Amino acid sequence: MNHGLAIQLIATGIFYGTPMAIAALGELLAERSGVLNLGVEGMMLMGAVVAFWVSRDVSGPNGLVLIIAVLAGAAAAAAISLIHAFMTITLRANQVVSGLALTIFAGATGLSSYVGDLANLGGNPGRHIMNAINVFGLKNVPILGPIIFNQPALVYISWMIAFAIYWYVNKTRQGLHLRAVGENPEAADAMGVSVVRYRYAHVLMGGALAGVGGSFYTLVISSEWTDGITSGAGWIALALVILAFWRPAGVLAGAYLFGVVSALGANLSARGVQLPPEVFSALPYVLTIVVLAIVSSGWGRGRFGAPAALGVPYARDGG
Amino acid sequence: MNKDWIRGGVGSRAGRLTAAAAMIVALVVAVVGASSASGASTTAKAASAPLKVAFLYENATNDLGWDTAMYEGQQGVEAKYGSKISVTDKVVPDGPEDVTAVKSLVAEGYRLIFLTAFNQQLYVNPEKFPGVHIVQAEYVGILDKKMPSNTSTYFTVDADGFYLAGMAAAAVSKTGQVGIICGEPISDNLAESNGFALGAQAVNPAIKVRFTCTNNWDSVSIAQNAARGLINAGAGAIAFLTTGAGPGQVAAQKGIPWIGYQTQQKAVGAKDYLAGVLWNLKPLFLKDTEQALSGTWKSHTDYVSMTEGTTSFDESGALWKEVPAKVKAEIAAKQKLFESGKATPFAGPLYAQSGKLVSKIGYSLDSSQVTDMNFLVKGVIGTIPKG
Fold first, then answer.
1. Cβ of A3 under 8 Å from any chain B Cβ?
2. Which of A163, A148, A141 is nearest to A14 (CA)?
3. What is the pTM assigned to this prediction?
4. Where does residue B302 rank: exposed (0-12), middle (13-18), buried (19+ CB within 10 A)?
């Protein structure tokens, strides 16, 4: 029964949704501090290419190489996000422009592609791939086995990250400060919270998580590097943050919905239902448009808004 | 070997820079080359210069798939002919650049050019460039009799190899299901998929054989997604006809036995590697090189498989020991029959997926029925996508 279409779609949906979820959780942190970073796609691609490079060229036990590769991907993407932080926090540049520039700079036709060429990564088979874990030996338990107990480590880590972010934002003093920085930076500043420091830290965390999300594409889902391998997942992650009303649980649920849609084609084809692959490739983006249309309608906007200071540079003198 | 200036891709920033630089270099080379060309051609014969042989690849030569198999052939040619030939190789992505690459190789004096299975049919006008020989893998134009007189082609039709693989896969599957990923639904891939299904059914008549087509040869990601689809649906062992070892990695990720293809791929997922259908293109390339050197080269079309010795069945998998002795003996017996050409995988009675009888008892499909195959056999779950 565990090979039934519904169970497998949910299990694979979680699998394919995880990189979008991790990147969106990172973006959530940045946006909660009041910084919109449209560079998610570019940062994910940097994470993907650097992680793949490390996994190809570093030798060692599979697990260790994969950990190093994920961390390297996170560091590379965080380095890219530092550019955005400097531009928008220190120089107070327009966040939309800087974020878009970041995606163009690091994206499918930019730095990530250049790094891929430089290290001759295209067309090379990956040497390490993250295996599914048979948690507590429960992978064959009916229904929950494939869905919960037989995923790769990063899926479980993404759950921990989501919970940690929920706890941090809602239950800790620093989380309170973060919310103040994102909602009302003047008040936060008056309370003695460093707006600049908080924003830098959360933009960098956002970058690092985007890198981890990107590395999922080259270390878990696939084992190759091609230009633009994330194929728009960064944009979907941005939409997810809005769809989730800036809440971690919502990010996970939304990401898995997109994951299910991504998994649909291959799962139906293996069951003898052949539809044009173009239809399935287009579905996640169609869904993005539909979701954005709904949440930006009057109904959605009335409920949970974005952090009030999102997109607004902060300067103590008001300038 | 300098791949980078070709591999950059004009879409990337770096690519544009390198492309611009490459164009300037190409212009300079063209001017210098043109001024010295007339002198070179007159002296070439007198000194009996080595035959210039080129290998043009579509993917990296370590892709563990088609390009690696071809590269092993190249190494065989270099080892055998040594200083009688001068060899170059290049990686060119499928698309307009491959035409340019062939043109410039011809202009540089290469007279025997081996091409991988590029999507487009690459040829050189035989009248304009006498003495140039092109060998392109799976030159589909041959089917419409449109292959020029200076071009040759070969098709690897591994229905027999995959029949043996299907037997082994069915024997080790713990789910009563096996699956195969086809690249594009061309006759070769359908014949190989059917071979796999018939072999599996020979061992276990009740086996479910799942078939899925990606409509793509080269994307590792797409092939890996397809592998996940098959395993999710219950396939307890998988094989694939796409290039590279990607699906094998997914099988290993999920702990499912897998069949390697084209080259020795077991390193990507050794603990779950069952068997392989491996190519040896060297004899084909040696024959062409020999004939080009002796001036006896003629256009030819080869359909090759185990019978010609260009495909072998690899039993070195870690899971091979799981195959019961009885099935191992049956595989060995079949293998002998295939290698000697005394049997084909398509012996009657053979039914199509629709239930239609396509070959009666005591008969087999003839070779043109195999090379024109456009159906799946009975018992296969899956549909052929429309071109």
1. yes
2. A148
3. 0.85
4. middle
What mean pLDDT is reported for chain B? 86
Strand order of the β-sheet with B311-314 is B311-314, B273-279, B258-262, B238-240, B177-182, B208-213, B380-381
Closest by CA position to A202, among listed A239, A235, A254, A241: A241
pLDDT digits (tens, 9 = 90+) for B8-18: 233 334 444 44
- C-alpha span between B285 and B302 (Å, rounded): 12
ipTM, interface predicted TM-score of the complex: 0.86
Residue A137: how many CB atoms within 10 A of its CB?
A: 9
Q: What is the distance between the alpha carbons of residues B193 and B157, in angstroms, rounded to a whole number? A: 11
Q: B178 by DSSP, 3-state: which?
A: strand
Q: Using CA atoms in the order B266, B271, B276, B281, what is the torsion angle rounded to 10 degrees?
A: 10
> In terms of C-beta density within 10 A (0-12 exposed, 13-18 middle, 19 or more buried), how is residue B42 classed?
exposed
What is the C-alpha to C-alpha distance for residues B211 and B213, in angstroms, rounded to an integer? 7
Q: Which of A117, A125, A129 sits opposite B12 (nearest CB)?
A: A117
Strand partners, B155: B303
Q: Give every residue of chain A whose pLDDT is below 70, as ranges.
A: 1, 298-304, 318-319
**CA B189/CA B380 separation, integer angstroms:** 14
For residue A271, give the amino acid letter. R
Residue B19's closest CA among A75, A13, A109? A109
- What number of other Cβ atoms are within 10 A of residue B22's Cβ? 17
Q: Which of B208, B195, B184 has its CA nearest to residue B94? A: B184
The residue written with tokens 């770096």 in the block is B14
Closest-CA distance of chain A to residue B209, Å: 10
Phi/psi for B154 (5° steps) reads -140, 145
Which of B3, B4, B233 has the CB atom closest to A271's CB atom?
B233
Tens of pLDDT, residue by residue over B85-122, are 999 999 998 888 999 999 999 999 999 999 998 888 88
Tell me if B14 and A117 make a contact (CB, 8 A cut-off): yes
The DSSP string of A115-145 is: HHHHTT-TTPPPS--PPBP-GGG-TTSTTHH
Which of A171, A235, A181, A219 minimizes the C-alpha distance to A203? A181
State whether residue A109 sits within 8 Å of chain B by CB. yes
Q: Is residue A13 within 8 Å of A257, Cβ to Cβ?
A: yes
State the CB neighbour count (10 A cutoff) for residue B21: 12
What is the helix (H) or strand (E) element at residue A36, kind and residue range? Answer: none
Tokens of B63: 């892709």
Do B258 and B237 touch, CB atoms closer than 8 A? yes
Phi, psi of A183 (to 5 degrees): -90, -45
Helices (H), chain A: 5-32, 40-57, 62-85, 95-106, 111-118, 144-148, 153-171, 173-183, 185-190, 195-216, 233-243, 248-269, 277-295, 298-303
**CA–CA gap between residue B154 and residue B167 (Å, rounded):** 27
B224 vs A contacts (CB less than 8 Å):
221-223
* B275 DSSP β-pair partners: B259
Nearby residues of B32 by Cβ (< 8 Å), 6 or more positions away? none
Contacts with B117 (C-beta within 8 Å, 6 or more apart), sequence order = B58, B66, B136, B137, B138, B217
On the 0-12 / 13-18 / 19+ scale of CB atoms within 10 A, A319 is: exposed
Q: Domains in chain B, please, with CATH?
A: 50-156+282-306 (3.40.50.2300), 159-278+315-381 (3.40.50.2300)
Contact A224 B244 (CB under 8 A): yes
Question: Which two tokens mark A15?
Answer: 């699998």
C-alpha span between A37 and A46 (Å, rounded): 15
- CA torsion through residues B56, B57, B60, B63, sign: negative
Q: At what angle do helices A95-106 and A62-85 cross, to 10 degrees?
A: 140
